Structures are given as C-alpha cells and as structure tokens.
Amino acid sequence: MRSLALISCVLAVPAIAQTTTRVSVTAAGAQVIGHSEYPDISHDGRYVTYLSKAPGLVPEDANNIQDIFLHDRYTGAVQRMSVSTAGVASNGLSDLPSISADGRFVAFQTFAGNFDPADLNGASYYDVYVRDTQLGTTTLMSKNSGGVGSSFGHSAKAKISANGVYVVFESDSSTLVPSDNGAFTDIFVHNRLTGETSKMSTPIPDMLGTAHSYISSISGDGSRVTFQSSGSNIVLGDTNGKSDVFLREWIGPTPSITIVSRSSAGVLGNDHSGDATISADGKFVVFSSDATNLVASDTNNANDIFVRDLVAGTTECVSVTQGGVPGNNFSQYADISADGRYVVFHSAASNLIVGDTNSGTDVFRRDRLLGTTTRISVMTGGAQANAGSQEAAISGDGRFVTYYSGVTNLVPNDTNNRNDVFVTDPAGLAASIAIRTGAGNVPNSLTANSQPLIGNAGFGFVYDNPTASCGVTPGTAVVTAIDFNGALTASLFDGCAGGSGTLLINLFGPVPALTKTGVWLGTPGTATAPLPNDGSLCGLAAHAQSFFVVVPGLSIHPSDAVDVVIGQ
After folding, report:
1. Measured between alpha carbons, how far is 345 from 365 in angstroms, rounded to an integer?
2. 471 pLDDT exceeds 80?
3. What is the pTM (predicted TM-score) of this model?
C-alpha cells in the first residue's frame, strides 16, 4: 500500500483579467427597471447593500418607494433592509446604506414613520435605523441616551463601525443631547449596545460650535470619528476660514480633536476639504480637497484625493497617475481599505491611466504600497465603459470595489437604461493549487466498513475518477472526502489502477453557473484549469483528500491533500 506519489508544490493558473458583475439584480439574476445606487460592501466582499427604486428586486416589494437592499454575492439571495422588525414595508423613502464588516448590520436613513414607536417625528424627517440581518430587527439609532427619538430635525448620512457597535450620523435635532441648542447640524455617535448617544462635533471642553458639521465616518472599533466643518472654534488656531476635516478621538481618558486636512509640514489647507473616510484600523484618513498647498506641485486647479497618515503625520495625493502626475480633472468620493493600502475614488481625469477616452467619470483604485493606479469601472477583460461610473466603496480587504453606473456595456444584456450597481474584482479569476504531502494533515476520519464520517474536512473538491491513475495499489478501495462550501458528502469506489500519481479534480456544485471542469495535476510545476468567466466564483476555497482503505483489515491510510482557491 502506498500513498500518492506527489511532491509538495504550488501551481498557479494564469488569471483572467479583472471581472465585473452586476449585483442590483433579483435572486434569479434578472435585471430590474429602476435606478440602483450608492452601494457599500462588507469586508470580504460577500455582501453588497445599496438603495434602489426598482420594484422587482424581491417579490414582496409593493410600496413603490425607494428601499434599501442587501445582495449576497455567494448565494445570489436578495433581502430588503428597509422594513420594520415585523416585516412591514416602509411608508417613506430610504437612502444611503452602510454595512458592518461581517455584513450582519446595515445602517440607513429613512423617512419611514412606521418602524419604531420611539420615532417621534414620523415621516416628516429623516431618521437613522440599523437592520440586524440575523435577528431580523430594525432599530432606531437617532435617539437620545434615554431612548427617545429625535424631533424637529433630520438625522442622516449614517456610517456603522466595522464591528457593528457604533453608528455615527449628522443631525440638526436639538433633542439628542442636553447641551445642544439645534442651531447647527452636528455629528453624533450612538452605541447600539449601551444605548448612549454622544455629540462629536464640539470643542473640548464642551462648547457650542460656530458652524455646521457633516459627512462623518468612524473607525472599525468606533473610537475615532472624522467629520467636516467650517467651524472656527473646534480647535485652536483654525484660521483658514475654510471647511476642514477633523478627527475626534473620544473613547478613553483624554479625548481630543485635531485637524486632519493639513500638509506633512502641518500647514492647514488653503481651500475647502471634506468627504473624509477613516480606515477601519484608525490609522489613515482619505479626503477630498480643493487646497493647493497640501502637497508639493499641486497645480491642476482641481479637487484631488488625499490620504493623511495619522501615525507618521504625512499627507499624500493619491488621485495621480502611475508616475505621480496629478489628474487633469476633478476626483472625489473616496473610500479606503481597512489597512489603508488601497483607495478608490471616481474621477473625470483622462490621464490617470493610458487609453481613457470615454469622456466620463471612471472609478479608480490606488495601491499606496505599489504606487499603482488602476481603472476599475471596466468590462470583464478590461474594455472601458461607454459612460460614467461613480460613488465607489471598497471591501475592507481591499480586493473588491462596488460602484454604480448607467453604462450599458459593463456586463452582457444590460438593457434597462438605468443606473445599476456593479462589483469589480481587479484580481480576476485564477486558481491556486497547492499539493500538501504527508498523512493526517486535516482532521478527517472514517468509520468501519469504509463508511465516511467526515469531521472538519475543510472546503472540498471531489477526487472522483475511478479510472484515473491514482497511485493506489490494486485491490484497495478509495474513499474521497468532499466538502464544498459546507456541503458534506463522500464517495466510495474500487479498482483504481496504480501508476503515475495523477489526480483528476473536478469542480462541482452547489454553484449554479459552475459545471464540472477538469483540473489535471500532472507534472509538478504545470497545471491547467479552464474556469467559467463568472466573477461570483472568486474567493471560493476547496479541499480534497482521499483515504486508502486496505480491504483486508480495513486499515486506513490518508492521501496527500489538495487545496484549491479560485480568484486568489
């Protein structure tokens, strides 16, 4: 009895160019008639939330009002978020969703007056809610620490922390905290677990601001908040008379507020700055600015995208070409990955990449580590869009980018003449195949009589060809452990001829678009894996391992293991 004659190696299949898929579709993949816009995406890129005016995304949507939806890119499932805990449809428009890192919580603003009895202002003003997709609850966030909803003022533009605990939003209500006279729009944070609501946009010690504050963001743990304001008394020395980006560190014994929109030398911007987003790790802030003095040689007279490194105290412009040349037109609405490496934004500049001739805004991703700029809003294969794309968000891991666009050529059969939500994977499709030698390196097990009892088999493909040359001594049985995305099965067959050590691994369901595609592992260092051109397969991981069962005595011998990951 011998195990497979395979040596340890890693084989890679060349990647297909970056892939683009449309996610503002029904669970069956059908397009809808109605604009879908302003998406956000979970850390791993699995879940995308967005607003839509389309009536047919879910069967029960009959309120003829703009709603918030959640799309599962793995299963294709679509859920409506803007419903009450009892499942009652909204009686008012809902807008601007934000999603937690794990995709469980979705925050949004709505005019609905029928979600929560604590909503005192009814359908007259925007309020902020969070939908818990696990518990099926919809809970008011724009309320004071006593649980009473805001009155006579809008609460809007919510962002939820990566951990799902904190929700930051802007409000012109005067009833959220005792010390607010409601003269200006302010920034508030609501703690979902404790129910406490705190005001962020005030000087330290607590005073009333002198101007509106708006467009906030929050770090992954909720301890840091950014916002935009032209208030002159929030920090000492704010004398530029422009709107600035502020950072408030509010959890801990020594809260502080500082201005982020400054040069590496500490000079305040000489024009307006705003639209800031802080990275989940709290170390970087991306923002847009018309200022010309934040970095050297900013001579394009256009709004640019900047990143402030809060640890190093440096500021860099990221809306630039591969060679560092600023864009020749405006760039705006940026988002940043959890670790600050990747920044996405949309831009009307035509010089950020070679061959940008579509005369529209495009979505770009800047890799701050490698210094590369890539156009994201393209067809699978790389052809440019035939119209503009905008409002991008990036997954926390930096891999997936979602945005909306009214183009008709990003995906096949886009004929609805509406804005749709897309997800682009710049990595494209590829299969990394690792062969791991040695026995017993995964926690699988078998019972007697060769009947499988699979423990934690990991993710699996099937080793299912009884006529292949498997390197197994004739007269033994081969049991194959299979676990594909959690679906545990097994198979038993005899008669596998000894020989070359070649495995045949077939991709198989439950993925609707995936058919059995052979992946042959032959000579070490070579492999072919023709993959379907389907971006939904990206990120799928798989594991295969067989057990040789010597029939006399039923002795069990595990084979080497094969791991396959698509799109890595």
Report:
1. 7
2. no
3. 0.77
